[in-house]
Amino acid sequence: MMSNPSKDINLIQSIPYGAMITFEQGRQLFLMPGRLIRGQIDPEEARFVGPKGIYDLYSQARQKDQEVTASSGSQTDGETGSLNTIWLMAIISIAIGLTNLLPIPALDGGRILFLIPEILFKKRIPPQFENVIHFVGFSALILLMIYITTQDFINPIQLP
User: Fold this and answer.
1) How far apart are CA 36 and CA 59, in angstroms?
2) Phi, psi of 108 (to 5 degrees)
3) HSE-up (13 A, CA, CB side) for residue 125
4) pTM to 2 decimal places
5) Side-chain half-sphere of 57: how many Cα atoms within 13 Å?
6) Tell me, what's the pLDDT at 6?
């Protein structure tokens, strides 16, 4: 039977593992657009998901964890029975954190983009201009969120 491998380690050993996994997840996130263009990844596997899609993924991961726990017969070992769910939450956290740093207006990365000229030239971009750009970016993000959430209901995502 195939399952997620696990290895008992202490807190000190887990820090470098966590950093390596976080780096690898971030790298894969940034490599994904190129892989989509080259056809190495199916577009359905790389689509955006909203809150409903995340809940659907969570439910499926939780169900797989319960199946693993039931088939192994160890109801007391909560760690091995929750690896899919923990892994999914880690991936979502990393993806949200890195996406928030993209230079898109209305996100933190967009704000950083406006701070760079201020740091370099010691002159602030006019607030009216900055507000308009952030409003347009925020409006686009809201429209994108509505579209993605609609897709989550019309075409629910399924784990492989």
Assistant:
1) 26
2) -60, -35
3) 17
4) 0.74
5) 21
6) 67
